Amino acid sequence: MACGSCSTGKDGQPKGCKNNGTCGTDGCNKLTVFDWLSNMSLPNGQETFQCVEVRFKNGRKHFFKNTENLTLSMGDVVAVEASPGHDIGIVTLTGELVRVQMKKKRVKVDSEEVLKIYRKASQKDIDIWQTAREKEEPMKVRAREIAIRLQLKMKISDIEFQGDASKATFYYTAEERVDFRQLIKEFAQEFRTRIEMRQIGFRQEAARLGGIGSCGRELCCSTWLTDFRSVTTSAARYQQLSLNPQKLAGQCGKLKCCLNYELDSYLDALKEFPRQDTKLQTQKGTAVCQKIDIFKGSLWYAYEGEWMNWHELTTDQVKIIIKAAKEKKPVASLEEFATQLQQEVEIDFSNVVGQDSLTRFDKPKSSQPKKRRKKKRKPQKANANTNTISKPNQKTGSKKPQNKSNNRRKNNSKNA
């Protein structure tokens, strides 16, 4: 699925233009539909479909009639009909796939909503359009300051100029009804243009502004999601999710749209389960369902009065117990059917990848204590004047000087 400037490489794979969503032919932008019928020719005698799809700011799309039989392709900048004046947009889809999109969104060709395409935009039209787009951000800041000064409980989320810069549409969100008559007067005096206020929902606001979700990816509503279906807390209950508003709410403050993605699979799986409010009648007593596991296909029951002792059963076993109770032949107890819970086995992690240890260069520490080395002292030289000799002391290991004359006296006394 490559756009015009990306082209294709070997085996039909896209090379990639690396424009990161700013592709000149509009093939990499958000909410873009790939025209898989573009390389197919129409049967003989069939005329091409005269409606085209045009995209405006932040993914806003409308269908227009090509009454002038212009040769249009994806990425062309066109001037279309607006009230009043004209608007500038980019063609995102042409041909028979537009007919499919209009049928999907229930838009009739003869409807008044389908306006006309005037011409391909000239350079003058594009310059006026770009100049008006550059004014939107500072206008939004100033408009919020005026709304705060008037103490209005509303949030101006975005401003969109018309292509001919004759009108500015202010998109805002509010929980209650807002009287903005004074606000429009000040906007007209401040910005010197025609003002239109349009209230949108919180989901539409998140789709226009964009962002990163808790999953780490760009928001679905700003990339590919075009219709917003209602999401209720029952979707979370069917999927056994905790009703924590901080985890279930998205950036718009409403329940996440992704709660509906896997809901049908859960509902199909729950068809094989008995109703949770059905009590099991046994000879030992009545058991009540405490918990279910859709992936395992298991249910946990506890006797009335013994709420701490749970018994795990499969769906087939529960159906057998319910059938026996209807036939007035209740089973003796749940212990006959209860499966033994598998004990958790501690997994010993091993080096299966072959990575070396981070401490492979560290020297291992010896377990034996280090021995203190004794410093060897040099023997002292004998002094010629005193005739002393250094003798090591047995107790301290030090040497004491002794006189030779004293030694001779001791030896003479021993001989006597």
From TrEMBL:
Alphabetized InterPro entries for the sequence: PSP1-like, PSP1_C
PSP1 C-terminal domain location: 115-200
Segments of skewed composition (Polar residues): 382-396
Residue ranges the record marks as coiled coil: none
Transmembrane segments: none
Region listing for Disordered, in residue ranges: 358-416
Bias-annotated ranges (Basic residues): 368-380, 397-416
Pfam families: PSP1
UniProt superkingdom: Bacteria
Gene Ontology cellular-component terms listed: cytoplasm
Protein name: Cell fate regulator YaaT (PSP1 superfamily)
Organism for this UniProt entry: Mesonia algae
